[in-house]
Structures are given as structure tokens and as C-alpha cells.
Give the backbone structure.
Amino acid sequence: KAERFFKSFTDQWLELREIDFTQPDPKRFRQFDPTLQNAMVEETRLFVTELIKKDLSVKNLLKSEFTFLNTRLKNHYGLKNLPVKSGKGMQKVLLGQNQRSGLLMQGSILKVTADGSVTSPILRGVWINERILGYHIPPPPPNIPAVEPDIRGAVSIRDQLAKHTTQTSCAGCHAKIDPPGFALESFDPIGNFRTAYGKKKTSAKVDPSGETHEGVAFDNFEGWRNIYLERPEILARAFAMNVI
């Protein structure tokens, strides 16, 4: 019964049931396959189960000393020095000071919040606001065209959004949506770290900096994360809202 609960809970709260909704371009993401995806989902389910069963701090949602990995997932994340035994399935692993920790760094979350072969700060920003920070984001006004990221990577999504958010009807919501979305732009649709979009010769650089809607600036995801690690009451309130 507990196992069914945790599966249902993570499917609804974290939208893991949408993991198959989009498929990354096999030409661009050749290392991605169903085996890797299954490991990503299992990591998140085991992680959330551990947090609840052991009544751990809500701060673990953003930064944690542990996660669950198998050798395939360890290699995908580039965590070569972690002691994961081959053939033993998913194992609890201590991460030490590694920056890839917490729920938002997990491949399943980065895939669910991406749009197939591209990322969108809007999709990720709305997801983080509603699932992690507890801020409801209303639907966009009618007749506002969607922002389509440049799949070639020649134009950054930040530049496209800058034009979009000059509209008064959009600016208010984007003040909340964009900051966490920008912070996660350093990670592609399957969770690889990146510094640029598209091919190197024509790509725009990734800029993960921003400013929260309260006016606090950050340089990257770690900086954004540190802001909310100092405000665990926001994380706790949002988690309780999703549980209820």
C-alpha cells in the first residue's frame, strides 16, 4: 500500500505520469533511452519516499546529501567518483559537496519540465512556482502567442522572452515565472549540464542568472537555490498544499 501511495503521490505532485508525454530528438540525445528514463523516475520515487519515511528536512527538496543511483544514471550525471556498484540496481549514495543534489537536479524533473527537445523557462518556471514554491500562476491572457524556443540554439530563449514580457499583461506573472526557469537553463531536456544552446559554432550562451520577484539577484541555479534554502517556510507551505 505504501509503495502504491508513493507512486500515486509523485505521479500527481511531480507530474511523473507525464514522463512519456514528450520524447527527446534521438539524433540530438543519442544517450537517452527507456532504460535511462526508468532509472530517472525510480531515483525520484525513492528519494521522495526516503524524505517522507524518515521525516527529513524540507530543504532536501532543493539540496540533499544523498540520492539514489545505478551505474547508468551515475554515468549520465557524470558522477564518476561515486561508489555505485554495477549490477546492484538503484542504491542510496552520499553526494558530499556535489552540486547535483536535490529534487530539481534529478533527470526525471528536468525532463518532465522540458518540451521534448528544447527547454523553456516558462514551463520550468511555472512548474517550480506551483509545485515547489506554492505560488499559483494563472493562465496567460487570451491572444498572447506562445514563445517557441529556437531549436537551432542560435537565439537564446532569454532574448525571445525579453520581447514577450514587455507587454504589460505578461510582465507581472513573468516576474515570478522566469527566475527559476532561467536558473535551470544550465540543464538540457534530459538533465545534461550545458553552457550553450545548439551547436558550438552558431549557439547562444546560456545565461542562468536572474532576480527573484522579491528583488534578490542570483548568478546561477546554486545562487537561486541558496535564496530559498534560507526560507524553508515557503518550501514547507508549498509541500503541505500539494499533499492536501
About this structure: The chain has a mean pLDDT of 88. The radius of gyration is 18 Å. The CA atoms of residues 65 and 98 lie 8 Å apart.
